[in-house]
Amino acid sequence: MDGRDLVRSVSVVGSGWAARGLRTVRAAWRGRRLDAAGPPSRGPERARVPGRMEGVEPGPGGGLLRFGRSELRIVVAANGAVFWGWDGAGPQPSYALAGGGPEPDPRAVLEPDKDGGWRVVAERMTVVVSRYGAVEVCTPGGVTLRRDLPPRWWEPVGGGAARWVQRSEVAADARFFGLGGRACGPRLRDGAYRLGDAAPGRASGPGDDPLEPTMPVQLVVADAGTHLVFHDTTWDGTVVLREGEEGAGSGHDRVGHCELRMDGGPLRCWVVVGTPARVLHAWAALTGAPALPPAWALGHQHAWWGPGGEQEVRRVVAGYQERGLPLDAVHLDVGRHDDRRVSVGGEERWPELPVPAEESRRDGIRLVSIVDPAVRAEPGDAVYDGGSAADPFARVARDRTVRDAAGAGESVFPDRTHAGLRAWWGGLHAEGLEQGFAGLWQDGHAPVPGGDRRGVRNVYGLCMARAGYEALRESSPGERPFQFSRAGWAGSQRYGGTWSGDGATGWPGLRASLSQVLGLGLCGVPYSGPDVGGRDGSPSPELYLRWLQLGAYLPLFRTHTRPGAGSGEPWGFGAEVLEHARVALLERRRLLPYFLTLAHLARRTGAPYVRPLWWAAPEDRALRDCEDAFLLGDGLLVAPVLDSGARRRAVRLPRGRWYDTVTEEVHEGPARVLVDAPLSRIPVLARAGAVLPVRGADGGLELEVWAPAPGRTGGGLAVPDAGDGWDDPEIERYVARRQGDRVVVTREREDGAGEPPWPVRVRGLG
User: Alpha-carbon distance 536 to 554, whole Å?
Assistant: First the structure.
């Protein structure tokens, strides 16, 4: 516990929560001691490398390669992904994989290679293993994408988990992305990145690492191709990246380097090669399809922190309704609770919770409750006593219960890595769900690692999300569950989305929030978003507006009111900001059918809603280096304003024709263009030929078609979705053709083309 933590604890005491504040101070000191004392001493260690290859044993999809001091198993999966694991490690057990994992590809065989090595030839890559254990991933044409040098282990002489290091080389032109939600990204420059879920204990910005969630997933983009590599171990570790450098025609390129050091766990990984879309599709097949949010969760949501009971809910809802502002959900933060235990029960402040919940639902507004991972460690508390009787709380070395400071003082943490305990935890949600909550906001972070819990800390958030998701499904089986979490890991998209945590208020915090959403999407978590305006201060009217304008184009669109940090409501920043905010909120509602379509595509293909500009052209190096704009699906390019006072900004355009969606001005790419960015809006451009499902003036579905360039065609998809059921609607495919001064739109079906069933509005012909 450092001085800043102590000051924050004392501020809790001064706020009137004296008893809880003192408990917080004591528990924080105890947690610090436990964190330091829990991990056992490693003692003397001995180093080990694989040694020389001594034999092979072919098997389905690959085989087993035996070395002098280790063995390597390689399996090509039917979906094209390749697995390899050292020291007998197999694909299972795994927190990340969905089900039992993919079947081996019977077409892939282990065969001899030159210089005493062996190789496995798959449809999309060739994996070559040298006689000393280097593993090389090549394109079908023989171009090297990645070369893993022989690994090295350090094993305690007295026994125990070995730590290990894996050094890798990539092409000189390669760029690194991923590793979860990184505030400094989305492109990961030279430096060290910790792989361990952690919260900094304050509002976070670009200089903070790690944040939640982190995951050992890298997406590497180079001229020769794109590949994803996932090291499937849940232990803490560090990734050190160094980009390569080309020799400017001299032929002396410096390759890029990656060094992965892990504190324990198996040395095993998956590699997928292909276009970005193909890679994310295969990744979703491995780790599970992203959860499909209900339609209302793709609208505007507002979180409120502080006491006040049901009257405060009515005040927030009335404020939006009186001003004609769209609102789809109200989130209730921890400020409404006497403690930070299970936050979905009916506390004394909420004797009439079903009444405002029903009132809000009639207006199309849902209530979402925060859930904290901790249980207050106080005898007499019903949850604590019930849990103690069942002994469900996480333990560390020397059989001590994990305790930590969790806002209300000393708290304990249920061990959610066990299925029975997840069921117990999920059952605690029943009361709040019955009273009217429609979704869960999983907040908080994992307890201190300590002892033998170090290997599961990083998946604590994933297991908590699973418990909440299963509780929601059981409570309302006819509705799609909605939840999102601060923490998570590879595969957490199966249970919902992610919230970017306590982002720092400021222009760097605004930029960081975009980086986190882009990075999470490239790791297979398509639904995420920040708190508009940040959490630790009062944003200026301009900053709040620019953040809200960006948030209107992100999957999770949430504003937040926090006492003492200024209003998070659009009318709290003056009349001018209110009117500009109204435009952004109404545009988000108009685009709701497009967001729903992107949600269905993410579930079926793994493609994120928010994509980097290089998504369809990873070979374009100028786009690879662009981090201040993004694609929303295939049809829109969003260029947020990320700097104070900016009223114009430069935008890097991919190839093709692009229309300003407000002025319909035409821009031709690839190019770098200067566009207007008045305070009333941020630049948004539509791809020529795009067919976008939008909400019409009458509230029904409408097709907005942007005219293709002469001699070109275009198209788009629409998924008419009723809102929150489990029906699997058909994907409607549309083609737009330019015929002189007209644009003709047809729906493509197996039995031939036909007229669209929805009204069509063509733009860009003027």
Answer: 21
Whether residue 167 contacts residue 153, with contact meaning beta carbons closer than 8 Å, is answered with: no
Location of structure tokens 């926090």: 562
Neighbours of 88 (CB within 10 A): 12
Consecutive 10-residue runs of the chain (766 residues): their mean pLDDT?
A: 33 35 46 49 88 96 97 94 96 92 91 94 93 96 96 91 95 96 91 80 66 90 97 95 84 92 96 97 96 97 76 86 95 57 44 73 89 77 66 56 59 74 76 81 66 72 89 90 92 94 88 95 97 85 97 96 70 95 98 98 97 97 95 98 97 98 97 98 98 96 97 95 87 95 94 92 93
Structure tokens at 636: 């829109």
Query: How do beta strands 237-242 and 256-262 pair?
Result: antiparallel
Q: Is 476 helix (H, G, I), strand (E, B) or coil?
A: coil
Q: Which residue has the tokens 């001018």?
A: 576
Residue spans of beta strands (DSSP E) within 562-683: 610-611, 630-632, 636-638, 648-660, 666-676
CB atoms within 10 A of CB 8: 17
Strand partners, 153: 48, 164
Structure tokens at 363: 């207006």
Q: Where are the beta strands (DSSP E) in 413-505?
A: 437-442, 483-485, 497-499
Q: Which of 531, 373, 403, 386 is nearest to 466 (CA)?
A: 373
User: What SS3 state is found at 482?
Assistant: coil
Nearest by Cα to 584 from 699, 682, 515:
682
Contact criterion met (CB below 8 Å) for 409 and 20: yes
Half-sphere exposure of 261 (CA within 13 A, CB side): 7
Which sign, positive or negative, has the C-alpha torsion 309, 311, 315, 318?
positive
Q: Which of 105, 123, 117 is nearest to 59 (CA)?
A: 105
- Yes or no: say if 302 and 333 are a contact pair by the CB < 8 Å rule: no
